[in-house]
Specification:
alpha+beta, three-stranded antiparallel β-sheet, two-stranded antiparallel sheet, 4 helices, globular
Length: about 110
């Protein structure tokens, strides 16, 4: 018997309630910058900016921001996929603080 890989995009499946759904739409992902109470800048990515910001404010976000609350959202960018957002996050994390602030002020 020959192995045939399953298609990853565009295939139909039955959901929990038995309705056929299509896996074709991608969710937008976001990269965001938070200004922490101690003046440092935190960079992250998410699918839902308001929810993620609330998590950081409540101390349930990243370990880095738990001790640096309150945090303020100073910048965000939208991307078509998680992968693109994660790549941009890495690029931003490699920037100097001055460049991150310039990016945030460019909005």
């Amino acid at each position: 018997m020959r192995y045939t890989p399953l298609p990853l995009a565009g295939f139909a499946y039955r959901g929990i309630i038995g309705i056929e759904m299509r896996k074709t739409s991608r969710r937008a992902a976001f990269v965001y910058l938070l200004l922490c109470a101690d003046g440092t800048i935190y960079t992250g990515w998410t699918f839902n900016i308001p929810r993620r910001t609330r998590e950081h404010q409540r101390g349930r976000g990243a370990r880095y921001t738990r001790a640096r609350r309150p945090v303020e959202l100073i910048y965000h960018e939208r991307f078509p996929s998680r992968r693109a957002a994660m790549r941009r996050e890495v690029a931003i994390k490699g920037m100097a603080r001055k460049r991150k602030l310039m990016l945030a002020n460019s909005e």
